Amino acid sequence: MVLKPGGVVLFRDYGLYDHAMMRFKSASKLGDNFYVRQDGTRSYFFSKEFLAKLFEEAGFQSVVNEYVLRETVNKKEGLCVARVFLQSKFIKPANSQTGSGLLSYKSSKEGKRED
């Protein structure tokens, strides 16, 4: 069991339309909201709806799921850019017996016997 019933997951990552997302060129796009950086690392920009769906399908309840808007100021360059983060809190219900959805994939595979 990865997270006991009553456990909490805190999430903060890039949100849709963050400045970093808007700077990517079309050649860097791998899929919807999914991009590759010059160094080969991947960046995904989450929507509130998509993140909530992922966690709810895994048996979690949403406590907080909201965009946090910030401005990053570079005084030397004279730039002010909009930053968008998705900040969320999900709880695994106390009456939850087993995991479901994405988070239980590994444990369900481990439970199968090979003859």
Key structural traits:
disordered C terminus; 3 helices; alpha+beta; elongated; Rossmann fold; three-stranded antiparallel beta sheet; 115 residues
Explain this structure:
InterPro entries: METTL2/6/8-like, SAM-dependent_MTases_sf. Pfam families: Methyltransf_23. Keywords: Methyltransferase, S-adenosyl-L-methionine, Transferase, tRNA processing. The chain is α+β, with helices and mostly antiparallel strands and about 120 residues long. It has helices at about 20-25, 50-55, 105-110; strands at about 10-15, 30, 35, 40-45, 60-75, 80-90. The longest helix has 10 residues, at about 50-55. The chain starts with 7 loop residues before the first strand and ends in a 5-residue tail after the last helix.
Brief summary:
By secondary structure, this protein is α+β, with helices and mostly antiparallel strands. About 20% of the residues lie in helices and about 35% in strands.
